[in-house]
Amino acid sequence: MKFKSLNIIEPILKALESEGYTEPSPIQEQAIPVLLEGKDILGSAQTGTGKTAAFAVPIIQKLHENQIKHETRYIKALVLAPTRELASQIKDSFVTYGKHLGLRTAVIFGGVGQKPQTDALHRGIDILVATPGRLLDLVNQGFINFTKVQFFVLDEADRMLDMGFVKDVEKIIKLIPKQRQTMLFSATMPKEIIGLANNILNNPVRIAVKPVETTLEVIEQSVYKVAKKDKVDLLIHLLKQNIIESALVFTRTKQWANRVTKALIQAGINAEAIHGNKSQSAREKALKNFKTKQITVLVATDIAARGIDIDELSHVINYDLPEVPETYIHRIGRTGRAGFSGIAISFCSPEETKLLKDIEKHIHINLHVNSDPIFARTKSVGNHSSIHQHKTPSKHYEGHTSKSRSSIPTNPAAQKHQDPYHVKKNKYWDKKLKEKYKTKEKKY
Q: Burial letters for 401-434: b for 16+ Cβ neighbours within 10 Å, e otherwise?
């Protein structure tokens, strides 16, 4: 099927063709005709399936068809997204698909100054893409008028739930007209999302391009059983020994994202971190460097990575296994997009065995267990000692309450409060890191 057969107007077809899109994805093929008919949609779609175009194209077309010349511009379409990165990408998609139609689109989110955003609102816009927090802030300041909203999109609704935005979303929904066309998209459908959908959708058409919460078959998935203290070394080994064009590495916390990134840089690997503590400009710069292949590795937390859209990402590496099986699907869904295959590699320490079992049960697949004789041999002879392997003298332990497990006392009460994923910054770790990678000589 071609886009032409979906009754899309010529200016949008021209824009799609200029981007190299001629055939719709399954969710586009199903959603676009339904939305052009004015019906509400409840969409279940995995990441990378083209759902942004599935709602953007019909919204742009209907706004154009109902456009009145010289009319004062009001917000007629509102799209809510959970993260700054996703909001920016959705805005870019609207601009791209509607570039021949003269519609105005703006994006607003927190973490940056609001003046450029309020200036855009004053000039008048047709489509607004926003994160909930900044949107409510500007509403309370009197900058936003929702009375003309005709289209409402709630994207990544399950992530909105995870990030605690549901209350904000409910406040926003109360402010927009009840007579509207509503679209809700979610990669997973927990009962809370079903409840929200029942409240905001009017006789929706349910669209699921794949069974909900299943992994993409085009992704080759495997796991390494590795001690926690050896994970950094294994990551460096894989990145140096294999031809990896680009890798998105997931850590559980922001602190570990920084630590892993520092280790990679010290080992001569171009890497940057992206997480919630980074400024918006730093996050955008890191993402741009990754997309333009100026860096090979982007280390990210789950929230920061939501919305990262890179068609040719070759590898996703789970440095830490996620605590929720659905998150595993979101992570590996970053690769294997736009018809490309992908590789997902997970590291599993003994402490994470239960998490691995939960993931395998959820996806109905037993992950292939990898082995690396070269890495195992270097570890066994002690030529590649881990950053975390160095013992800390007891006199230093009292001054550093968050050491790796190798230096934690055997007292069960003390162990209970020591979580290696939430260690605080300490100079000892940095010192050993510098000693380990102070020379450029290869260790493999």
A: ebbbeebbeeeeeeeeebebeebeeeebbeebbe
